[in-house]
């Protein structure tokens, strides 16, 4: 069965790649660095990289972009703490993910771009790296890559497994096709107990499912991130320390206008209300500023502050500052959630002790968002009117803000220790001898 599925997959893959390639290339060009190590996507490596990734016995971890790379790095550190002899190849799909992975490059950690999942390319990459095991982060189950790992005689696991409602419905519709692929995995580390029934309904062997919690939301394994005190920046702009602050974190196109409209309306009853906007992509800052200025708002830019300018809002156009700005907020709106983009991570806002709002499109964090809503630890808004209503009600009740923040913090405690539980679950897989080959196990 798996051989037939792989044959069909590899016949369709080139056509799908041709159809998707223009959009993929346009996105890479727009974000820049598309030429960077481009040959690695075809499993073609420089002599220097080859020398490192051919180091026998490395663990191969694949993480798509920045969020998944952060999970991978947390796991890598925990695994190294458990066994300092372990070495790793960390593959990513995006240039931003690669940039982050490259900051941790050492003799025992080599970042690469993930090869295209076409049989000749996947087979070449696996034959070069010959890892002791493959760990896939969250939702990246590539059929050829997984099956080639098994052909090598190694093991494969999905860690911090994420299954959005949309993906679940899609996989259920092709259960006969998806189940054999997922069952090529030796272990799936799930985030929540209810995930067991969801994965089982797709035909995954229940014996391979283990609830470990979310590594992403596990702060017990991470050193506290140093946060900057940005309150003096607000003081320099003339913003009173008693003024309530609405913050939009990682906002996407259209969401800035919703928040600006909320500011304009609520200033009738809260004249000192201040807005801080942190767009998801800093290169959008000029366009965002023009649209806000067209609404009659005075905009201060983080990169060109004018003291005592008394602006209506601050547009943060620096990267890496969002977590620190959360501690200045009274209420936080989590971006990319009103525009069907999957949402952003609410954990840093929750850790800052601030009540959070988000839109209905939180599929990238659906498990956590669902837990927040069930425990009345967050508010879901669906449009500009419900956003306005939610902010207004929270401004009127500081006690409700405190209660929401406390409940959200309690929701996160269930994930404490998830990294250690994942490492313990992986130990049998990582200790297996990768030299026992079975070349015919997954032949297409």
Q: Can you give a write-up of this model?
A:
With 444 residues, the protein is α/β, with parallel strands linked by helices. It folds into 2 domains: 2-13 and 50-221 and 418-430, Rossmann fold; 231-413, Rossmann fold (3-Layer(aba) Sandwich), CATH 3.40.50.2000. Helices cover 44% and strands 14% of the residues. It contains 18 helices and 14 strands. The protein has helices spanning 2-31, 47-53, 66-82, 95-102, 119-129, 143-152, 165-173, 175-182, 195-200, 231-236, 255-266, 285-294, 322-326, 347-351, 366-374, 384-395, 398-413, 418-430, and strands at 59-62, 88-92, 109-113, 133-137, 155-161, 187-190, 209-211, 245-251, 274-279, 299-301, 313-315, 331-334, 356-358, 379-380. The strands form 2 sheets. Strands 3-2-1-4-5-6-7 form a 7-stranded parallel beta sheet, sandwiched between helices. A 7-stranded parallel beta sheet has the order 10-11-9-8-12-13-14. Strand 8 (245-251), helix 11 and strand 9 (274-279) form a beta-alpha-beta unit. The chain is globular, with a radius of gyration of 23 Å. Residues 432-444 have low confidence and may be disordered.
List key phrases describing it.
single chain, 444 residues, alpha/beta, Rossmann fold, 2 domains, seven-stranded parallel beta sheet, globular, disordered C terminus
